[in-house]
Structures are given as structure tokens and as C-alpha cells.
Amino acid sequence: SGKINIAIDGPAGAGKSTIARRVAGMLSYIYVDTGAMYRAATWYFQQLGIEPEDEEKVLQTVPNLVIELIPGEDGQRVSVNGQEATEEIRSLAVNAQVSRYAQIEGLRGRLVSLQRQMALRKGVVMDGRDIGTTVLPDAEVKVFMTASVEERARRRYKEMKERDQITLDQLIRDIDERDRLDREREISPLRQAEDAVLLDTTNMTPDEVAEAIVSMCRTYV
Ligand code: C5P
């Protein structure tokens, strides 16, 4: 039996990355965090002082954008054009603007083609917003992960470095706003693919969720 691709989509803070990483570990597959790529691009544009409204400048920069996801001891490292940005891409400044840059078609085109290249040889667990619908429409297993917005905010809050600078209520509003932008954008909005399995993880442990997804793969691997 050969390798397959697994697509995991859903709103912010649903636990996609924790689960995708775990499933990849269980199957000895490669984990690709596409949100980290949009975050890395956002961080880079912010460094250059290029606003999301300035589409022309964004599009001039896109062809030179090199984003690398490097597997490391304590998780994945992220670099943009050779600059390490692993911690920076999780900042509140990036959170606040990533969904605005992510609306830009030319940027999405570039990142989607990098993502497809990573999945060519199969054996990939990829998480994001448009993996099942746009990036890997032929993925053998597709999951749409959700949880209540309160639970999602709690999960995000726990993994945040700047907890002292934001309240849980503010984080709920941030997440709601990001989901709204991601759902309402024109190009590849966040939505469940027709052939994706809906998984509400509000009352599930990470072990249970990972096990459920690995079971879906059993017919293939
Ligand atoms: O997954 P994460 O919350 O880190 O993603 C950050 C943002 O990147 C999302 O809110 C969304 O705007 C964008 N994104 C996207 N398409 C993806 C992954 C992330 O538009 N496949």
C-alpha cells in the first residue's frame, strides 16, 4: 500500500496543527503547516513596511519570496529569504494582519504552488484553510476540524507567548474577525470540501482526534 495525502482544514485555533503534527508522527509522514507560510510572508512584508493594501508592492515582492519549513528538534522552524522567523510569525502583530495579506490572489498563487510541490510524492499531512478545496483537491483523506469559538480561543491562549498583552475576550474577538475574513474572501475562502469529514473537537482530547484521523487512513495505509 502506498502513501496518501491528508488535508486538514478549519477555522483558527481548532487544533489543526497539533493534530496534523501528531498524525504525521503516527504515520511517519511529513507535516506541512501552510498557516506558517502565510504568517512568514506577513512578517516579511511587515519588515519591508509593505501594507496589505499596497497590492502592487506585494506582488513585486512575491516572485522573490522563499519560505522554508525546516523540521527541528522542538518543532518546525520557519525562515523567509534566509531569515529565521519562527518566533516572530506567532506575534500579535502578525495575527492582526495575516488574513489581510492572505486575500491577495498573487500571494496565494505562489504559496499554493510551493505547497503542491511539497505534496507531490505523497505522505504529507497538510493543514490550512483551502487544502481540501484548492491546494490538494485529490487528497485521499480530508478533514474539516472545528470547535466552539470559546474552546478555540482557550487553546490559542494557552500556546501564546504574549498572554499578558491580551485577554481571552480580546482573543475571541481576534479569532472571530480572522475567521470572518477567511470565510468571506473571494479567493479560496475557508469552507468545508464536499468530500471532507466534519470533526467537531470541542469535547475531544488530541489523542482521540488524532486516532480518529488515522482510522480514516486505514483503508489506504
Ligand atoms: O493556521 P493559522 O491560524 O496559523 O493561519 C494564519 C492565517 O493564514 C489564517 O487566518 C488565514 O488568513 C491564512 N491562511 C490561509 N490559507 C491557508 C492557511 C492559512 O489563508 N491554507
UniProtKB/TrEMBL annotation:
Domain of life: Bacteria
Intracellular or extracellular location(s): Cytoplasm
GO CC terms in record: cytosol
Sequence positions that bind ATP: 10-18
Main location: cytoplasm
Keywords: ATP-binding, Cytoplasm, Kinase, Nucleotide-binding, Transferase
Manganese listed as a keyword: no
Gene3D superfamilies for the chain: P-loop containing nucleotide triphosphate hydrolases
Molecular-function GO term, any one: dCMP kinase activity
GO biological process, one term: nucleobase-containing small molecule interconversion
Family of the protein in this entry: Belongs to the cytidylate kinase family. Type 1 subfamily.
Cited PANTHER family: CYTIDYLATE KINASE, CYTIDYLATE KINASE/PANTOATE-BETA-ALANINE LIGASE
Name of the featured protein: Cytidylate kinase
